[in-house]
Description:
202 residues, alpha+beta, 2 domains, 6 helices
Amino acid sequence: MAGRRVEVGDEEPLEWFWPPTAPVGYGGLPEWSDELVQRRPQMYGRRPTPWTMPTRVTRSETGWLVQYGTAVAQQADPPVEHGSDAALLADLERVEWWPMPVEEARQISMERLWTTTQAAAHDQHVLGSWLASTEPYDGRINELRERLGKPRLTKSAVSWDSHGDTGARMSLVDAEAWASAVRTARAGGEGWDVTGPKERDA
């Protein structure tokens, strides 16, 4: 699973969890993983999240057991058993985006990409996804920021390297992070939006 492993004892089953659905501190997750936010933690306080238990994937005797997360306004679906690695991998995208349908997550990501591209083209402000971003998105963005700071070949005014246009890749990660933030806001119920609990801004 493209998540984090929980360190468990010898007698405990191997477990991975999906960070966007995890409470702060679960499995050793930092409160803030975005490097820019970490530099000024006093400005942001504790990272808000409505999640109380993450989506987890645990090795079972017969394969893999998927246990869905819970949040303030989100109950878990019944656990799902996958009898093989291939079966889990085939279902992984749906598991990672639960309870949001994959197609809706893609649509929200596409709308976010359009919005940020339009804003960049006209030098306009757009609400940053980092306000509610989590791993694995923060880690990917931090890695891309590091690449932008290294010498590389340039073509026109675009930053290119062996992995393609770094700025474009950052936009794609931002779009996924935004869709994840929308999913989390829904899991928080009426008292939440993509930046966190609404009363925090009152």
